[in-house]
Write a structure and sequence with these properties.
alpha/beta, FAD/NAD(P)-binding domain, 2 domains, seven-stranded mixed beta sheet, five-stranded parallel beta sheet, binds NADP nicotinamide-adenine-dinucleotide phosphate
Length: 311
């Protein structure tokens, strides 16, 4: 029987692992399909306390993992399929490789995944000129025009990063005002390589004879005009959906958008022994530091729960 299984390896998961590891609970971490979480797809993180020069997202995650492993955390690269609380109070965790674990507590820290527009050919174009990760794919598009979709911090950060490679970056946004924080928005809009395309929706990804993206058809919501932009890659940065599909049937309460519902004070879900932390339970803040902080809370809550079980 495990003491604690942590599902997810982003900031929340690794912080929970550091704390439960230091509490001698020997946590088992199940990685999910994107080890390291969202920070592995970002560039420089400038607002994580303790790094006045900034830190690269993947480096920060690597350091968190090393810190957790130093305190006895164990990682398995596996994807959780279901969690079920048993009558005796233990929790069964099943993975898609066929493994089954029993544990006293679970910390759900599975984060959120990038959203797409839902256009018919979208899925088939991923990797063929359509991506959600500038850090991963930006360098493939040197000296050619590209576009970023969205108006948030991610869109501004990706657009600014892509100016290192692309000849031009269209920043396509459905409104005439960015949602991003002022510092990120100002930085993007001041960059001469970034051309904002306001009030615009992508209606279609245009594909060349090889099946790669070569343009987008856009609809201007103010003028009602339809036009075409020639480009080689579209970076979709329109937000995220919480990764909670595996919770179907678990009894864990979710809100209408699929985020895990907490009790409002702690990291407790409605199911005893199951806790949650990070973006999967946070639709408001969604920062690396808030995820880390909530991972700490979940670890302490799990520790107290186990102590109570032991009487
Ligand atoms: P976000 O803030 O939710 O922004 C999503 C953007 O995509 C919005 O501009 C939204 O338009 C647009 N959008 C959503 N659905 C769309 C659709 N179907 N079609 C077209 N456009 C659509 O998401 P985010 O930029 O990924 O940021 C998420 C959180 O992470 C935020 O709290 C952000 O501050 C944080 N973050 C921080 C950093 C950093 O500090 N380094 C970097 C990245 C992200 P509307 O504006 O019209 O709603």
């Amino acid at each position: 029987m495990e003491n604690v299984i942590i599902i997810g390896t982003g900031c929340a998961g690794w912080t929970a692992a550091i704390y439960t590891g230091r509490a001698n609970l020997s946590p088992l971490i199940l990685s999910g399909d994107q080890p390291g979480g969202q920070l592995t797809t970002t560039t420089e993180v400038e607002n994580f306390p303790g790094f006045p020069e900034g830190v690269m997202g993947p480096d920060l995650m690597m350091k968190m993992q090393q810190q957790a492993e130093k305190f006895g955390a164990r990682i398995e690269y596996d994807l959780v399929e279901s969690i079920t609380r048993q009558e005796n109070g233990s929790i069964q965790v099943r993975t898609n490789s066929g493994s089954e674990y029993l544990t006293r507590t679970v910390i759900i820290a599975t984060g959120a995944s990038p959203r797409h527009l839902g256009l018919p050919n979208e899925k088939s174009l991923i990797g063929r000129g359509l991506t959600s990760c500038a850090t991963c794919d930006g360098a493939f598009y040197r000296n050619v025009p590209v576009a970023v979709l969205g108006g948030g911090d991610s869109a501004c950060e990706e657009a600014t990063f892509l100016t290192r490679f692309a000849s031009k970056v269209y920043l396509i946004h459905r409104r005439d005002e960015l949602r991003a924080s002022k510092i990120m928005a100002d930085r993007a809009l001041a960059n001469p390589k970034i051309e904002p395309v306001w009030n615009s929706e992508v209606q279609e990804y245009i594909v060349d004879a090889e099946g790669d993206v070569c343009g987008v058809r856009i609809f201007n919501r103010v003028s009602n005009e339809v036009s075409t932009l020639d480009l080689k890659c579209v970076f979709v940065a329109i937000g995220h959906d919480p990764n909670t599909g595996f919770l179907t049937g678990s009894g864990v309460a979710l809100d209408s958008d699929g985020y895990v519902l907490l009790d409002g004070v702690s990291s407790r879900t409605n199911v005893p022994g199951i806790f949650s932390a990070g973006d999967v339970a946070d639709r408001s803040y969604r920062q690396a530091i808030t995820a880390a902080g909530s991972g700490c809370k979940a670890a302490i809550d799990a520790e107290h729960y186990i102590a109570d079980l032991e009487g």
